[in-house]
Amino acid sequence: MRFRIRYSKQGLMKFIGHLDMMRYFQKALRQAGVEVSFTEGMSPHMSMSYAFPLGVGMTSDSEYVDVDLDIPLSSRELVGRLNRAAAEGVHFLDARVVEPGKANKGMNLVRRADYTLYFREGYEWEDGWKEDFAGWLDQESIMVLKKSKKTEKEVNIRPLIYAFDLNPDMRCVRGICDETAEEGADPTASDYDAPGDLFLALSAGSENNIRPELVMEAYASASGRAFSPYSFQINRDEVYTKSGDHFIPLIKLGKQL
Fold it and tell me: How many Å apart are CA 111 and CA 233, to the nearest integer?
């Protein structure tokens, strides 16, 4: 039985990279006493896959991992066990049963990701940049040089920016863990409880992936503003798939057991 598990990653855990997070998650599953299925072959490993790896230095309110279990648990029990084994900075929020099969893996479904950006102290841009940013986005084409490990090409990123908000509130989606959280705790709260400086909804996934850093670097270059990859703290708010004209959080594709 395949479960899609949603968790938050905050605090010092933002410095843990994707491969180390995979190792951590395997350890957490073992410590939680969860009976995970293993692949077959010469080198069997836990049957699990991440939907959309998070960059080092980013925090997140919605990370997703798909795990196949030999012995199913209820959603509440699985989340509770994982939280008891969780490291500081990781909180498991929800677990839902999803259909097995390659086409239904989270990594193959991702189409959008939402981000809230916060200026780090000392890196703030001068007053008026928000109005200028809105004007910059009010054009049909924004061409940037997008680089990958093997190629680089010019891409029009404007159609890949689905929405933006210049005065966003915190965007945290609550999971079933709210019912079992310690009194007074807010497991979905990000490190940054003040309103963000910018919200971006961007195309994501294997086909048309665009990083928030690329958007901000393109704007800074066009407006003559100084840019550093460390100018912002970035929080990923949610990850979506697409059904028709609507975006749906990945967790909504499953059902609680």
Answer: 23
Pick the closest to residue 198 from 113, 117, 114 (CA basis).
117
Give strand pairing partners of 80.
none
Q: What fold, for 2-109?
A: Alpha-Beta Plaits (3.30.70)
Residue 80 clears pLDDT 60, i.e. is over it: yes
3-state secondary structure labels for all residues of 19-69: HHHHHHHHHHHHHCCCCECECCCCCCCECEEECCCCCCCCEEEEEEEEEEE
pTM equals 0.86
Mean pLDDT of the chain, nearest integer: 87
Give domain limits for the chain: 2-109, 112-250
Instruction: Give 32: exposed, middle or buried? Use CB within 10 Å, 0-12, 13-18, 19+.
Output: buried
Q: Please write the tens of the pLDDT for every residue from 142-185.
A: 999 887 777 888 999 999 999 999 988 654 433 333 333 343 44
* Cα distance from N-terminal residue to C-terminal residue, the chain: 11
pLDDT single digits (tens) 35-62: 999 888 788 888 899 999 999 999 999 9
Q: How far apart are CA 75 and CA 175, in angstroms?
A: 11
Angle ∠(116,217,250) on CA atoms, nearest 5 = 35
Q: How far is CA 90 from the centre of its chain?
A: 13
Residues sharing a CB contact under 8 Å with residue 95, sequence separation 6 or more, in sequence order: 3, 4, 5, 6, 75, 78, 79, 82, 176, 256
